[in-house]
Structures are given as C-alpha cells and as structure tokens.
Write a structure and sequence with these properties.
450 residues, single chain, TIM Barrel, alpha/beta, binds phosphoenolpyruvate, 13 helices, binds erythose-4-phosphate, two-stranded antiparallel sheet, aromatic amino acid biosynthesis, 39% helix
C-alpha cells in the first residue's frame, strides 16, 4: 500500500455525496480531534475478517451482513444494540445449523451513520407552503427533523459518530464475548419472541435440537470448545464521508500499512464507485477487507477495472462485490458480470444485497420493499452462481431486531396500510425480526441445496 493521499488531494478528485459545510474551520477542528482518537478496531481483527471472507469466497463459510439502513444517535441504546445483535445471532444460528456452514457475522453497525441520497434537497408542504431544505444525509451529517437548523450539516456530528460507534462496539464486544452469545442461550434469545409466530416455533424446535446436540457432545466428552461460548462479530459501514474516514485512518504498527480503524470492513456505495473518484482512490490505499456495491448499470469491464484498482495483488478476502440488481434484473444482469470476472481469474467474494434494487414508494407515501422480491433476488443470486459453478459467498440485508412494519409481505402478510403501524426507519425500510428469521430459514434451505 502506498502512502494515503491527503484529504485535499482526495477532494480534488471529485467526491460525490459529500455534505456542504458552511464553517471550514469547524470541519478542520473536528477532523483534527478525530485524528487523536484511539482506534475503534484493530488491524489484526480486520485481517482475521479478511481471512474469513476469503474462506466464504471458496465456499467454506457464508457471510451474513446485516443491520440498520441508517443508525441514529438516539438509537444507540443498550436495548437497541442487543436486539440488533440478537436477531443477527439468531439468523446466523439458523444458517449454521440448517446449512452446516460457518457464518461470518458482520453488522451494519457501529458506524453506519452517513447516507448517500438521490437528491440533495427535500421539499415538503409546511403549513400550506412548499419548503425546500437540505436532504437528511444521516446523523453523521444533519438531523432528521425538517427544520433549517436541524438540516444544517454540522461537523460536530462527526465526533458524535465516533462516540456512538465506540459505545455500540463496546457493548457488542461485551455481549459476544461475555456470555450472551453462548450457544446455550439459543432459547433465551427467543424467550419473549412471539410464541404464536410460526417462525418463532420453527426456531424453538431448532434451538431444542441444538441443545440436545450440545448435551450429547458434553456427555461423550467431546469437549466444550471456546467457539460455543463466544462469537466473532465484525462491524461494517459505508465509508462515505471522507473527513471522517480519512481522520480514522491509521498506520498499523505491525505492517506499516494504513487501515481504516473505524470499522472492520468498509464499503463503497453504488453512488460513489466512480473509478477515478475520491472514494475508490481512498479505498485503494487502505488494507481493510472492503466491499464495493455493483448495481444494474455496472458492466463487467467496470467490475474488472474496480478490482484491478482496489485489489491489484488479487489478495483473497480483500474485495467483496456486493451486487444489488433487484429481483427483476438479477437473472439477466448478474451472469455476464460473474462470468467475466471469474474468467479473468479475479479473486472476489460475491455477496447479494437483496434490498437496494427492490425499493419503491407506496401510494400512501412509504418507502418499502416486498419480502417476496427480497427472497426472489436471493434465489436468483443462488441460481446464477449454481448455473455458472461459482460461489454465492453471502447476503447483505437491512434489518432490525424490533417488530417494525417497514417491508410488506412475509409470513405476517404485512400490507401497505399496515406500514403506518410502526414505520421507524429514517431512510430505507428494514426487515423486522420475524421477517429476518423467515429469510434466514429460506436462505438456509438455498444454501443447503447449493
Ligand atoms: O440506503 C440507500 C440510499 O441511501 C437510499 O436508498 C437513498 O434513498 P433516496 O432515494 O430516498 O435518497
Ligand atoms: C446506500 C446503500 O446502498 P447502495 O449504495 O447500494 O445504494 C446502503 O447499503 O446503505
């Protein structure tokens, strides 16, 4: 890795989706403060994740990346973090047990505070008048409330991102190593889960089988390995705001290489993957495992050029292509991409983001997705890889541990009117707890067949 370019050099390349701050001195002060903060993750942990992603790209593991579309500062509470972690652990257990494959658990969490938007402005009718303000770009940038004060990009928020991420990660580390993630807890995670939900009962039956298997292993003296009592859980976010990400980049004392120490894995979004743009340049200099979104407009040549720039040494586990075509387009669009990238010998993990190509707005004004489309895109992803003899390495979902009503369909048969009941996402809709588990059981089935 060569020396990391300065922030000025990166901005000179043209950085999409950045806030327009009105106080450069305050931005400089926030960046300077961030540069003095301790790392949130260690480079060695990032390398461990890279090795696990490499295993997934060989079909020896499966990546489950999930969490909020956009974290919020008020949402960084113990209950929220526990609920998010719990649903991901439950999904991981379902995938591991039903498909007999190790699951690499990566949260969209502890840093997922900045959002790219389709439009820089938002217009609403306020007291009969049309009011236009800067779009909400995530708590890292501005507030969700529709007032001029709240929507003003505030660089102080970058420091809040650091602190909210630190406390979230601290709690996640406590939960995952301190007993909460013990396999003996599989029932407890389900305890207050809707008992009359078929997926809750399905999970309960599986949890009992796991319990029996653990008891059997103990009875025959097959040991009680550490892996039964703790889990490896990694953080990830879209590294969108150059000021924050650059300030959180440090030289690893072991290797002298730069790492982004604000999350284990960071990804480049669909709107910022320009080959000659600031984000791709920045990412080409850090040593973390990285993701790059590829939407329906991405060509095979785009993918090859990105891989050459982002992973010139073809290091296994370094680069994950996260495809987000949408259910309607995946079966037509993905094969050519995978075929050409594979034919060129490019080492990449293919992950299916089954969310971002399936968003639409309902007649009553809610941004939503259909559970059936999400499922269909994952099925299409598995079908394409099976046909090509390549490896489906994982899925990315936007989900929450709470019983929100943001995505229509699924076993609960949530309809458009039902969305109003508990719609809490500040940007894109998330699978609720029941839908997340349903998806896990269905994907486990696909994985088992694959
Ligand atoms: O999460 C992804 C994007 O930030 C989001 O889909 C953009 O939403 P918008 O089209 O409402 O701006
Ligand atoms: C913004 C996101 O996705 P995309 O870049 O694929 O639109 C996201 O995953 O939060």
């Amino acid at each position: 890795m060569s020396e990391i370019p300065s922030l000025e050099q990166l901005h000179a390349l043209g950085a999409a989706q950045q806030p327009t701050y009105d106080d450069p001195a305050a931005v400089a002060a926030a960046v300077a403060r961030l540069r003095t903060m301790p790392p949130l993750v260690f480079a060695g942990e990032c390398d461990d994740l890279k090795a696990k992603i490499a295993a997934a790209s060989r079909g020896e593991a499966f990546i489950l990346q999930g969490g909020d579309c956009a974290e919020t500062f008020v949402g960084a509470t113990a209950d929220n973090v526990r609920n998010k972690l719990r649903v991901l652990l439950q999904m991981a257990v379902v995938l591991t047990y039903a498909a007999s494959v190790p699951v690499v658990k990566v949260g969209r969490l502890a840093g997922q505070y900045a959002k790219p938007r389709s439009s820089d402005k938002e217009t609403r009718q306020v007291d009969g008048e049309s009011v236009t303000l800067p779009a909400y770009r995530g708590d890292a940038v501005n507030g969700f409330d529709f007032t001029p004060e709240s929507r003003r990009p505030d660089p102080q928020r970058l420091l809040e991102v650091y602190h909210a991420s630190a406390s979230t990660l601290n709690l996640v580390r406590a939960f995952t190593t301190g007993g909460y993630a013990d396999l003996r807890q599989v029932h407890t995670w389900n305890s207050e889960f809707v008992r009359n939900s078929p997926v809750g009962q399905h999970y309960e039956a599986m949890a009992s089988e796991i319990d029996r298997a653990l008891t059997f292993m103990q009875a025959i003296g097959a040991g009680d390995p550490d892996e039964f009592h703790r889990v490896d859980f990694y953080s990830s976010h879209e590294a969108l705001l150059l000021e924050y990400e650059h300030a959180m980049t440090r030289i690893d004392s072991r290797t002298e290489n730069p790492y982004n120490v604000s999350g284990h894995m960071v990804w480049i979004g669909e709107r910022t993957r320009q080959l000659d743009g600031a984000h791709v340049e920045y990412f080409s200099h850090i040593s973390n495992p990285i993701g790059c979104k590829l939407g329906p407009t991405a060509t095979a040549d785009d993918a090859l050029a990105l891989a050459a720039k982002l992973n010139p040494t073809n290091e296994p586990g370094r680069l994950t292509f996260i495809t987000r075509f949408g259910a309607e387009r995946i079966r037509d669009g993905l094969p050519h991409l995978v075929e050409k990238v594979t034919a060129e010998g490019v080492d990449v993990a293919w992950v299916c983001d089954a969310m971002h190509g399936n968003t639409f707005e309902t007649s009553n004004g809610y941004k939503t997705r259909r559970f059936e489309d999400v499922l269909d895109e994952v099925q299409g992803f598995f079908d394409v890889h099976r046909a090509l003899g390549t490896i489906p390495a994982g899925i990315l979902v936007e989900n929450t541990g709470d019983d929100v009503t943001e995505i229509i369909g699924g076993g609960e048969e949530l309809d458009e009117l039902g969305l109003a009941h508990r719609y809490e996402s500040v940007v894109d809709p998330r699978l609720n707890r029941v839908q997340s588990l349903e998806l896990a059981f269905l994907v486990a089935e696909m994985l088992r067949r694959a």
